[in-house]
Amino acid sequence: MDVTVTVNGTTYERDVEPRKLLIHLLRDDLDLTGSHVGCDTGNCGACSVILDRVLVKSCMLLAVQANGASIETVEGLSEDGELTPLQQAFNEHHALQCGYCTPGMLMSAKALLDENPEPTEGEIRRAIQGNICRCTGYVNIVEAIAAAAEAGR
Ligand code: FES
Ligand code: FES
Questions:
Q1: DSSP state at residue 76
Q2: Could you report the per-residue pLDDT of 88-106, keeping only the tens digit for each?
Q3: Is the pLDDT of residue 153 over 80?
Q4: In DSSP terms, which residues pair with 4 in a beta bridge?
Q5: Which tens digit of pLDDT belongs to each residue from 117-136?
Q6: Positive or negative, the Cα torsion across 52, 55, 61, 62?
Q7: Which of 33, 38, 60, 151, by CA, is between 20 and 30 Å from 46?
Q8: Predicted pLDDT at 136
Q9: Is residue 105 in contact with ligand 1, taking CB distance under 6 Å?
Q10: CA of 103 to the centre of ligand 1 (A)
Q11: CB distance 130 to ligand 1 below 6 Å
Q12: Cα(93)–Cα(52) distance, rounded to whole angstroms?
């Protein structure tokens, strides 16, 4: 089936099998390997992307369901090689250890801050509740998101 998606501002058209998951379209067909596969069952959040302004787990959607959508992935966060305040905050607050969960964490944090630029700690914790960090670095991740919110004020 033909699928057309716009990812980080670039439009792609691909012929995909109906059973192909969105995460595999991104990683295998579009070579956007920043979004990770941690479970394939909707539990870990490593594959999180923003689809038409809504945070989704891209292993829980078929590629064909994204037809016509505009998608933001971790590759689209920085512009011209410059880190965004959110990425800088993750770096400065040591909010990544192995980094496997980090792309999904960043997209969940971005979705939160796009909607709610001044979140409480509780709102930050709720926003990332679908993202598992197996290194259990949640304290630093929450601090980084709070710092990014502060920087955006
Ligand atoms: S790979 Fe999608 S939620 Fe884990
Ligand atoms: S930084 Fe290692 S899983 Fe999150």
A1: G
A2: 999 999 999 999 999 999 9
A3: no
A4: 13
A5: 999 999 999 999 999 999 98
A6: positive
A7: 151
A8: 87
A9: no
A10: 12
A11: no
A12: 29
Taking residues 63-70, what's their average pLDDT?
98
Task: Give me ligand 2 centre to Cα 110, in Å.
Answer: 17
Q: What is the pTM for the complete model shown?
A: 0.96
Nearest ligand by distance to the CA of 138? 2
**Residue 122 near residue 116, CB atoms below 8 Å:** no
The gap between the terminal CA atoms of the chain, to the nearest Å, is: 45
Which residues, 6+ apart, have CB-to-CB distance to 89 below 8 Å? 95, 144, 145, 147, 148, 151
Summarize the confidence of residues 57-71 as an average pLDDT.
Answer: 98
Q: Are 8 and 35 in contact (CB under 8 A)?
A: no
Residue for token pair 């709610």 = 116
Give the burial class of 88: count Cβ atoms within 10 A of its Cβ; 0-12 exposed, 13-18 middle, 19 or more buried.
middle
- Parallel, antiparallel or unpaired: strands 10-15 and 2-7: antiparallel
DSSP state of 17: -
**Structure token digits, residue 134:** 């197996």
Query: What distances in angstroms separate CA 94 from CA 69, 88, 119, one per listed residue?
Result: 33, 10, 20
Token pair for residue 13? 């058209």
